[in-house]
Amino acid sequence: MTKIVRVTDDISVVDEAAEALAKGKLVAMPTETVYGLGANALDEEAISHIFLAKGRPQDNPLIVHISHKDMLECVVKSVPEAAEKLMDAFWPGPLTIILEKSDKIPTCVTAGLNTVAVRMPRHPVALRLIEKSGVPVAAPSANISGRPSTTRASHVIEDLSGKVDYILDGGACEVGLESTVIDMTGEVPQILRPGGISLEALRQVLGQVTYEPALKDSRTVPKSPGMKYRHYAPKGELVLVDAECSERVQALLADSKCAGGKVGVLCCGERGYDADFVIDCGDDAEAYAQNLFDALRQMDELGATFIVAELPKDSGGIVPALKNRMLKAAGGRVMTEAEEYRTELV
Ligand code: AMP
Ligand code: MG
User: Is 178's C-beta closer than 6 angstroms to any atom of ligand 1?
Assistant: First the structure.
């Protein structure tokens, strides 16, 4: 049985779930990025239940969430000066830092790696849950593996009801995309996954920061095991088009109408497209990011068999993360004006 707890003004309603989590139960929690499926990071059996509930491949490590820097002591071996700077600048917030793992964290959390991913989220419900449980909380995104991440409690209920002990409903997630993952164990800090904290913001604090090569070149094996999987894919075929190419979108919609099936479009702003389902994800990239996973899930529910999605217009900020998720969902291809596909990763 899954208990669904709506969290409004009285945040203490979270405390019962926190106590259960400390004893090995699974609790889905809202964070500012996406919903997470939390378990006691020090409890191997609880961790095995996360992998089971999600159908997550065993070689994909989990992010460990903390509510206070004091908790770092049982998560990582040491905190280098540069990592400390990142924590001061971006925690609590959507930045996950890879550091050398402490022996207290079981290897099933890190999929056998000697590094661990750690983050302090800024959502008050997540912070209260971790604080009251008194343990570091391992939490991947609270979706069935491969499906779009969950950014509303209704998405979590759809994917995980009956498989977890608590779902804490804290409304819609503020960022809507997963955290930035940065590896601080090498000579130069590397972004393994673009997310809520931008490359520019990281460079302001650290100076030199690069994208991991696999983010630019699909022939390279990614350092972050999770990045090798196809993710976020809706059930229908998804084709991406640059926002400036509205004629290409029109043509794709017209062709697919002739071919039959139900056609959907995700656009950035009102465009007047002729499709069975039109979801306007918003004119600016932040709004698009907040709405993307919900829109992809809506298309599934509506039964769209073919979906055309406009890529965001701007660059910088959240855009590389947004494009990265859209490209993963679409198998890494964008249709050009010349009706050819180009490959792109961030
Ligand atoms: P999720 O929690 O589902 O958003 O996925 C967490 C992401 O962090 C995945 O892409 C993991 O592969 C990545 N990750 C977690 N731990 C590590 C680690 N120790 N080294 C590299 N990547 C990691
Ligand atoms: Mg995930």
Answer: yes
Query: Taking the chain (346 residues) in consecutive chunks of 10 residues, what is each chunk's mean pLDDT?
Result: 95 97 98 98 98 95 98 97 98 98 98 97 98 98 95 98 98 98 97 96 97 81 76 89 85 82 92 92 94 97 95 89 93 79 68
- Of 192, 232, 324, the residue with max ligand 1 atoms within 8 A of its CB, to mutate for a pocket test, comes to 192
Please report the domains of the chain, with CATH numbers, ordered by start residue: 3-216 (3.90.870.10), 237-342 (3.40.50.11030)
Give the integer Cα–Cα distance in Å for 318 and 92: 18
Question: Which atom in ligand 1 lies closest to the alpha carbon of residue 140?
Answer: 2
Non-local CB neighbours of 195 within 8 Å, separated by 6+ positions: 33, 94, 95, 96, 175, 177, 178, 179, 180, 181, 321
Strand order in the sheet with 180-183: 3-6, 166-169, 27-29, 36-40, 137-138, 63-65, 115-119, 95-100, 180-183, 190-193, 210-211
Q: Using alpha carbons only, how large is the chain's radius of gyration in Å?
A: 20
